[in-house]
Amino acid sequence: MSTIFLTGGAGFIGSFVAEKLLGRGDTVVCVDDFNDYYDVTLKEARVEPFTHNPNFTLYRKDIRDLAAMKEIFAKHRIDKVCHLAARAGVRASIKDPLLYTEVNVDGTTNLLECCRIFNVKHFIFASTSSVYGNNKKIPFSEDDPVDHPISPYAATKKATELIAHTYSHLFGIRCIGLRFFTVYGPKGRPDMAAFLFADGIMNGTAIQVFNHGNMERDFTYIDDIVDGVLRSIDADELRYEIINLGNSHTVKLTTFIELIERGLGKTANKEFCEMQPGDVPKTHADITKAQRLLGWQPHTKIEKGIEHFIQWYVNEYKRS
Ligand SMILES: NC(=O)c1ccc[n+]([C@@H]2O[C@H](COP(=O)([O-])OP(=O)(O)OC[C@H]3O[C@@H](n4cnc5c(N)ncnc54)[C@H](O)[C@@H]3O)[C@@H](O)[C@H]2O)c1
Questions:
Q1: Distance, CA 83 to ligand 1 centroid (Å)?
Q2: Dihedral (Cα; 211, 213, 217, 219), 10-degree rounding
Q3: What is the pLDDT of residue 278?
Q4: How far, in Å, CA of 167 to CA of 121, rounded?
Q5: Distance between CA 200 and CA 289 in Å, rounded?
Q6: How confident is the model at residue 6 (pLDDT cuts 50, 70, 90)?
Q7: Which atom of ligand 1 is found nearest the CA of 83?
Q8: Handedness of CA 282, 286, 287, 289 (dihedral sign)
Q9: CA torsion sign, 61 to 62 to 67 to 72?
Q10: Among 82, 212, 287, 300, whose Cα sits 20 to 30 Å from the Cα of 241?
């Protein structure tokens, strides 16, 4: 049993990671600032089931606050860090790049500093498929150059990969950066496609379909992502690795919308729009490295994953 310092535990991915860790008997020290980037009641609802678990401690703190982070590290004997807190979202990062560098870059550096000071040797962190920018080579491989990010969000995530490498090299901290590819599922993020489309279809308002529908995404189901995160937390033999976690199967945006329409039994009112600045037309993960290093394999087909999302959206989210 380990004590895991988990950041972003009230977030979409973080709350599922917390549930899995607690379920197998680990202790979770969770930090989340419950900021209002999206509906805070959703964040509160995600952590509510853990609040009575004696193995779960919640700190409503900001990772930018180094003194607060040090205090938490001093209080608990942390074995490993799973750092998922971030300002996520490409479009919002163009509006407020300084917030993104402060939270994503400075915040991550604060946590690596805590690892150095408190001798914590295992640091998992969330990167993103966005670092590939307009990469022309498909599928995207960890060996592809990613020196030309096209949004502040992507640039901050690439920066965290670099700073983590430095700490790994200098202080022998095992750092594993996971490049997640468009994660979806129950309790997901309201600013992401599945949610936006479901809201529009249910409310009868127009949904914006960017690049006139000529978009493809490697949608990856939450359970598969969580499995990859847990495998990384347990991967004690690695040193510094950047690893793609994607379904490795692209889906057309129009197909994705059709599946949501079918699940809700309603047709979308589509407004076809230009490509958004910072956005990319296609993502596709090469996952041979995740298979080789983590023994990871995604299992959830898009039809099943959307079914689970719609069930939650209709039966739990819309009613609460
Ligand atoms: N969801 C995806 O498709 C996806 C894809 C690629 C990468 N990622 C990355 O995965 C991680 C988790 O993403 P998610 O979809 O669960 O996002 P999320 O926004 O639901 O979760 C992030 C959590 O971090 C918290 N947080 C933000 N700033 C903080 C701060 N300064 N201090 C403390 N807590 C803070 C938020 O309150 C939130 O609960 C992020 O690092 C994100 O960049 C997500």
A1: 9
A2: 130
A3: 86
A4: 10
A5: 38
A6: very high
A7: 41
A8: negative
A9: positive
A10: 300
Burial profile 217-236: b = 16 or more Cβ within 10 angstroms, e = fewer: bbbbbbbbbbbbbbbbbebe
Structure tokens at 311: 């069930």
Q: Is residue 155 part of a domain?
A: yes
In a domain, 120, yes or no: yes
Host domain of residue 154: 3-184+222-248+285-298
Q: Active-site residue among 153, 167, 184, 317?
A: 153
CATH of the domain at 56: 3.40.50.720
Q: For residues 243 and 232, is the Cβ–Cβ distance under 8 A?
A: yes
CA distances from 150 to 84, 104, 159, 160 (A): 22, 16, 13, 16
Top mutation candidate among 13, 30, 242 for ligand 1, by most atoms within 8 Å of CB: 13
Residues in the chain: 320
- The reply to whether 80 falls in a domain is yes
Specify the ligand 1 atom closest to the Cα of 189: 20
Dist. CA 34–CA 63, nearest whole Å: 11
Strands (DSSP E) contained in the chain are 3-7, 27-31, 56-59, 80-83, 122-128, 174-180, 183-184, 207-209, 216-217, 220-221, 240-245, 251-252, 270-272
Tell me the per-residue pLDDT of 258-311, one tens digit each, with 9 for 90 and over: 999 999 999 999 999 999 888 889 999 999 999 999 999 999 999 999 999 999
In a domain, 213, yes or no: no
Q: Which two tokens stand for residue 237?
A: 């033999």
Residue 89 CB less than 6 A away from ligand 1:
no
153 given a catalytic annotation: yes
Please tell me if the CB atom of residue 13 comes closer than 6 angstroms to any atom of ligand 1.
yes
Count of structural domains, the chain? 1
